[in-house]
From TrEMBL:
Pfam families assigned: PAP2
Transmembrane residue ranges: 32-54, 66-85, 114-137, 144-168, 188-209, 216-236, 248-265
Residue ranges of every copy of the Phosphatidic acid phosphatase type 2/haloperoxidase domain listed in the record: 146-259
Organism: Rhodococcus koreensis
Annotated keywords: Membrane, Transmembrane, Transmembrane helix
UniProt protein name: Undecaprenyl-diphosphatase
InterPro entries, sorted: PAP2/HPO, PAP2/HPO_sf
Highest taxon of the lineage: Bacteria
Chain coiled-coil ranges: none
């Protein structure tokens, strides 16, 4: 017969196991829900993006709701991915496999350029590039607004990345896997975030009002730059796969918001010039407004 102390111990052990089982069920349910939201968010974003591409640029009334759906889709997808990363759900199971593959395939002639790219795409490098390109784009448009939107969007994305890192609190890959030692939080990748938002915003500003083919080429080039930067982070062992995916999602979300602001400014500038030409056609359009309107047409 069990003693009273043994009975109490057995009872406490059963309660502990029950609590652990309930926690496991709760976590697995939350992870499953997060995965469903991840898929749903991605589907909403892709559907809205496809709709915008099919509708073209002539249907202004349809653009704001579609941009809103794109932003909603990316926000839901990013939040769901962050939750899964935080709880270590099965979506992260590919992370160590990808990390190991890149570690096993490193070569000296690739490592050097990869380090150079990752250094240029760091926080300082991204900030410098954003300021330089912002100045050039502002000079091109003869207005401070494009540069301010670019720099502000990149800065906001960097801040959001830092905050998200603190909330998720994910550790970096093991030190033995890293080429460059980094010990801060890992999700999302700041490099991927910066590359995505900076290159996409530049593509949007340069391609605004251009034919669809040119805009598509610019956006494809922007995504290619992002992929190169993201791959260097994986190659050097500084991030997990889901880190760079999260960075791309966050950078894309910031770029969507920034491009929406830029589009609003361009449309208002175009409307002001159009109104001015109706009042005084020979003299109302300044060289600055004419240049801006030409790009917005």
């Amino acid at each position: 017969m069990l003693s009273k102390a043994s009975a109490y111990g057995h009872h406490d052990n059963l309660i502990g196991r029950a609590h652990d089982a309930a926690a496991d069920v709760h976590q697995s349910t939350g992870a499953a829900l997060a995965f469903s939201l991840l898929v749903a968010g991605a589907a909403v974003f892709l559907a809205a993006t496809t709709w915008r591409a099919v509708a073209g640029t002539n249907r202004r009334s349809a653009t704001p709701p579609l941009i809103g759906l794109q932003i909603l889709g990316l926000t839901v997808a990013l939040s769901a991915l962050a939750y899964q990363v935080r709880v270590g759900a099965w979506v992260t199971t590919a992370d160590p496999v990808v990390l190991g593959w890149f570690a096993d395939h490193r070569t000296e002639w690739v490592t050097g350029p990869a380090i150079a790219i990752t250094d240029a795409g760091g926080p300082v490098g991204t900030a410098v590039i954003a300021v330089v390109l912002g100045a050039l784009l502002s000079r091109r448009a003869r207005s401070l607004v494009p540069g301010l939107i670019l720099i502000g969007t990149v800065g906001a994305a960097a801040l959001a990345s830092t905050v998200t890192k603190s909330i998720v609190g994910r550790s970096r890959p093991p030190i033995v896997s890293q080429v460059l030692l980094e010990t801060d939080h890992s999700f999302p990748s700041g490099h991927a975030t910066g590359a995505m938002v900076l290159s996409t915003m530049v593509a949007v500003i340069l391609g605004y009002g251009s034919p669809a083919a040119r805009r598509g080429l610019l956006l494809a080039a922007a995504f290619a730059v992002t992929v190169v930067v993201a791959v260097t982070r994986l190659y050097l062992g500084e991030h997990w796969l889901t880190d760079v995916i999260g960075g791309i999602l966050l950078g894309g979300l910031a770029a969507l918001i920034g491009s929406a602001l830029y589009g609003i400014w361009m449309r208002r500038a175009s409307d002001r010039v159009h109104s001015a030409t109706q009042v005084d056609p020979p003299h109302a359009v300044s060289p600055v407004d004419a240049a801006t309107t030409g790009r917005a047409a």
